[in-house]
Design brief:
Helix content: 25-40%
Number of helices: 7
Distance between the termini: 17 Å
CATH topology: Rossmann fold
Shape: globular
Number of strands: 10
Radius of gyration: 17 Å
Strand content: 15-25%
Largest sheet: 7 strands, parallel
CATH class: Alpha Beta
Structural class: alpha/beta
Strand order of the largest sheet: 1-10-9-6-2-3-5
Order of helices and strands: EHEHEEHEHEEHEHEHE
Amino acid sequence: MVKIQISPTKLETGRAAAAIAGEILQEILTSKAIARFIAATGASQFDFLNFLCEMEGIDWARTEMFHLDEYIGLPADHPASFRKYLSERLVAKVHPGQVHFIEGDAADPELECKRIGHLISKEEIDLAFIGIGENGHIAFNDPPADFETEEPYLIVNLDEKCRRQQVGEGWFHALEEVPRRAISMSVKQLMKANYIICTCPDKRKAEAVHDCLSIERPITPMHPASILQQHCEAYIFLDKESASLLRR
């Protein structure tokens, strides 16, 4: 059953999510040589990653990181590149033992999906850090999301609401600058993670949170994050603003 925790502020939401994520990572590393995890990006992850990187007792050298999604055609040094985001906000701070980035500017995106998909399929994924988009997406699986594909990574078209969110968060100056396609981890691959930590603060996420997590709402590809209700170890961290439309 999905577990939802609501904190009073965005900062406390990030702190609470990091505390659980760090605890799970430490527990995994007591029984396994390597902990394999998935890292997400976006404004919702700022506080979470800051607190997680400050935690003591995590042997990051024994972790292996996979990248959730990346724009097609965007170079790694672009300000909106998710490789740049994760390099600066996670990798450079804690130095995971292995890092697998999606090369969004690869000459052949289909081959890049196969390359990174082969790597992630070698062993189970222990833990995934994700958010929920304003349109309810997880990774870049915009509605209607593909709940059936077995491919670990796929090429997706980004809908306008998703692209407008990227402008609203300040990654791009205008809608026409936002790429229309991306490489994204698939829903099924994401759901294979043994644990999911989903951090989703902010008033602008309230409608998506209601549509995806309200018990009276159906699980449907039209609200991609609703699939999290089927995960047995999914932890959802909200602030009072993002949870404002949920029934208590």
